[in-house]
């Protein structure tokens, strides 16, 4: 078996605990992996600026697949970005505001844009989008944006996906469901799977040299793209079909337990 050279992990409900906390001493693990020639990658629906803030001490020793693959950053260098057309995201804003109870979020590269009328959700949204501009007319904003997100406060994102977003957008865009409260729309073909394959190609890696951890539907393509695909024990039962292995839950630091075996020079079972 080839040596693992890249480890990618989703954030929410995978690496983070249910309290939203990172595993203890994670920076040390990332530095150890870098020292032995293994790239650690965060693969998240969150934007690059938020991820770089969270991992500020080690951001130049790791990589980020942000906005579900809309931007790839390798040790401080942006390798890839896929921008939505303004005409498309303006139409999406109108669709969400007219047909749903969701909160539209325009994911610009430097910051997110949200309608002023939804400022009541600022505290929660800033957990994911640390830089937000609240504007009077969201559909008048034109900016470089790589993702359009809808936040569903009533935790009904899956129902909205099946009823409205899948038939409306899935033939022309990548549409993913994250947890119970998010739907993300990117350019067609953009997802965590494509991103990890592009990053692997950049580093000259094969699937057998890559490992990934996830818990939900926007992780499926990433899990399918690597040989060593893990879901955490707290993932939904229907996610088992997309992973070759299962590790402990996020609250029991399942990702770290596998990393420990790798740092200890014990490769996972084939």
Helix content: 25-40%
Give the DSSP E fraction (strand runs of 2 or more residues): 25-35%
- The unreliable regions are 266-270
The helix/strand series, from N terminus to C terminus, equals: EHHEHEEEHEEHEEHEEHEHEEH
The backbone outline, from C-alpha atoms, is globular
Using only CA atoms, what is the Rg?
Answer: 18 Å
- Topology-level CATH name of the largest domain: Rossmann fold
Mean pLDDT: 95
Please tell me the total number of domains: 2
Order of strands, widest sheet:
5-4-3-2-1-12-13-14
| Most strands sheet | 8 strands, mixed
Please give the CATH class of the largest domain: Alpha Beta
Distance between the termini: 8 Å
Give the tally of β-strands.
Answer: 14
Structural class determined from secondary elements: alpha/beta
Please give the CATH architecture of the largest domain.
3-Layer(aba) Sandwich
Number of helices: 9
CATH homologous superfamily annotation of the largest domain:
HAD superfamily/HAD-like
């Amino acid at each position: 078996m080839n040596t693992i050279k890249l480890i990618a992990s989703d954030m929410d409900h995978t690496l983070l605990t249910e309290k939203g906390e990172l595993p203890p001493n994670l920076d040390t693990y990332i530095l150890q992996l870098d020292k032995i020639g293994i790239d650690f990658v965060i693969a998240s629906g969150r934007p690059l600026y938020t991820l770089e803030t969270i991992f500020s001490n080690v951001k130049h020793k790791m990589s980020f697949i942000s906005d579900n693959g809309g931007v790839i950053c390798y040790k401080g260098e942006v390798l890839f970005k896929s921008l939505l057309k303004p005409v498309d995201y303006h139409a999406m804003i109108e669709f969400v505001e007219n047909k749903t109870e969701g909160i539209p979020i325009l994911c610009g590269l430097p910051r997110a844009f949200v309608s002023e009328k939804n400022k009541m959700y600022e505290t929660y949204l800033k957990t994911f989008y640390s830089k937000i501009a609240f504007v009077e007319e969201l559909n008048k904003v034109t900016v470089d944006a790589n993702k359009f997100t809808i936040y569903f406060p009533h935790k009904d994102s899956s129902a909205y996906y099946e009823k409205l977003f899948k038939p409306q957008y899935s033939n022309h865009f990548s549409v993913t469901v994250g947890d119970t409260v998010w739907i993300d729309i990117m350019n067609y073909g953009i997802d965590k799977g494509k991103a990890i394959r592009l990053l692997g190609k950049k580093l000259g890696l094969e699937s057998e040299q890559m490992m990934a951890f996830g818990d939900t539907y926007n992780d499926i393509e990433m899990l399918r793209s690597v040989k060593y695909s893990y879901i955490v024990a707290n993932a939904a039962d229907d996610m088992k079909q997309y992973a070759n292995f299962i590790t402990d839950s996020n609250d029991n630091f399942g990702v770290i337990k596998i990393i420990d075996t790798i740092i200890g020079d014990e490769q996972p079972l084939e």
